[in-house]
Task: inverse folding
């Protein structure tokens, strides 16, 4: 009888251990930033800064206006350009936005383009709103439903530590429809 009870207890414990392992989230979920969520036109506040997306546009071609010498240059892509116009304000200290990306509905992440300087490289001063544009290149089928994610702020202070459980900003861009032939972007004068 004792053997039967011991086997039953062991079986129950094995089932409980298996269930507990399935309920424990994976490390990516456990250590993911805590996102403040919003939509176009809403101010989304996180610990280091607040962000408001004014509008998001798509285009087949991008016209880049440069601040010096009043020149313009056309940039092409095999996909679609997504241009996000936004305003950001640092909360308490000088900071850069950090990692800026668009996330497609399937979870694929697209970084801001590095083909020119965008607002993602600007230094934000505490309490002073700054505005600019950030451009992304996406495959045409990834545009609809894409969300803007801003994580891992870059602090200027050497004493500031970036924690794994930092804050993030997530903004639904409500992108749909056909892209414009050309969208215009002003290169940020850093």
Result:
């Amino acid at each position: 009888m004792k053997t039967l009870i011991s086997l039953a207890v062991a079986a129950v414990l094995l089932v409980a251990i298996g269930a507990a392992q399935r309920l424990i989230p994976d490390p990516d979920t456990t250590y993911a930033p805590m996102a403040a969520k919003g939509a176009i036109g809403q101010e989304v506040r996180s610990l280091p800064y607040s962000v408001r997306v004014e509008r998001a546009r798509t285009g087949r071609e991008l016209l880049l206006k440069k601040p010096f010498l009043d020149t313009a240059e056309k940039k092409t892509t095999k996909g679609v350009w997504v241009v996000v116009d936004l305003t950001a304000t640092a909360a308490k200290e000088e900071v850069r936005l950090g990692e800026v990306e668009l996330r497609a509905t399937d979870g694929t992440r697209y970084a801001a383009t590095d083909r020119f300087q965008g607002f993602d490289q600007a230094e934000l001063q505490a309490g002073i709103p700054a505005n600019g544009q950030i451009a992304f290149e996406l495959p045409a089928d990834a545009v609809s439903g894409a969300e803007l994610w801003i994580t891992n702020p870059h602090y200027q202070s050497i004493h500031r530590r970036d924690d794994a459980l930092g804050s993030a900003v997530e903004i639904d861009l409500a992108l749909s429809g056909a892209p414009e032939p050309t969208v215009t972007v002003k290169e940020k004068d850093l």
